[in-house]
Write the structure tokens for this entry.
Amino acid sequence: VQEFVGLFVFLILAISLSAAVFALGHIKCRKLSSEREDAVKEQEQNVFSGLKKRNDIRFIMYAVLFLVFSTEAILLFPTALSYGKQGLYALVEILIFSAILLAGLIYALRKNILRWK
Amino acid sequence: MDMLYQFYIRNMEQAGVPEAGVIALWYILPFCLTIAALIIVILLMFIVERKVILPVLNKYKKKNTETETEEKNPQTADCNLPDDSNKLLYLSAISLVLVPVIMAWGMVPYSNKYIPVPSGVNLLLFLSILILPVCGILLAGIAGRNNFSLASSVRSSAITISYVVPMMISVIGVVVLSSSLNINEIILGQSITAGAFGWYVLPSFIGFLVLFTGIIVQVCYVSLKYPVVKNFAIKSDAKYSGIKPAILNALEYAVIFIMALFLVCLFFGGYLPPLGFYLSEVYEFNYSFNTIAVYFEQIFWLIAKTIIVVFVIMWVRAILPEIRDGRIVKFAWKWLLPLSVLNFCAVCVYKYLAGGFVA
């Protein structure tokens, strides 16, 4: 537990630093004149059409690929840690696992999910 | 850490500081040192890039390229928070970039005894913190309430998450070699008397290439230098003004430096001397001087190696052409991911053949 005291103190200090920077920026600033502010707002309202606007499907594909492969990366970490204590068995297991991983990737590529129109 | 702690306690007792203050200061001091180092490094790199690299580049550039037309931001006030966007999202977008970078700076062992944030699983924490700025950029796009900013932030985060996976898997090769998740132990695992021949860049060379490519892409295309992100996500979106885009611009340099530190720690032996022995141990002045001088020499070697890597990164960043984002992402999935998995298998086979087994 003592090991994480330094971590949490560091985290809290970092968050408070960023809050302090924003607060300082908020206090010491130059205010816009009101008609200029209105002009900026008017200009912006034309641009945004809401979060429900349709986006390209390939971004979802990237997200799914990321989810799959990062999960596999997380599974590889404990394997890599304890690999020094295992024998040939672990090596064969790792090779089979990597082959399955690459086969999945090849399947995804053959399905053309990384295409660009 | 123990020796340093006792040294600190003894000196504080002699100075007559109360005990609670001593302990509080022990935790606050590393943060202040880290922030000071961060500001110095950002200033130095800013000066080097703007005053040294860019003038040289502009000399050899074709005259009629219109890439450097910087438009003046119409709105420069800092205090008007936008009315229509969520204020928590708006502010936390920048914090989500700032806080992880500061945390990552605290996790690197600068010498054998000085790690600002001591933790047993440094490497895992570092890798998990590496992904948080993606959320920051995505939130900035959403909170900007602007179609262009949303689209470009989605694109840049697609690039990031595609490159994070090969980077993580190439780091696993180092974990296999050292059997540890602590960056300090990984560095100590590379120490042999032959010096540079013990570094992990030799057994997992493909992993080094993959990690370096990932860093280059993260730094060149995801950062605000990338024109899509630069023009739309932050700059043309007038809502981010004042100190906030300034923080993002400054953090680019901090990210370059921390990535270079990370690369050096994992693959180039961190604070270990390249010749296999410390220069301060050659001449024996007296015992107490030598024990302190070793730590300063470790910091010197770490910074020297890092500056070389930073130079290469900034060099590539200055001359790299702009590539369409779809192609960048495709390169990550099609080439880097199989290469990193191959590297993992190769390292496992190497370790099996080299006989680095305990049982």
User: Anything to note?
Assistant: Residues 64-78, 224-238 of chain B have pLDDT under 50 and may be disordered. The two ends of chain B are 31 Å apart (CA to CA). Chain B touches chain A through 76 residues (CB under 8 Å). The CA atoms of residues 109 and 184 of chain B lie 6 Å apart.
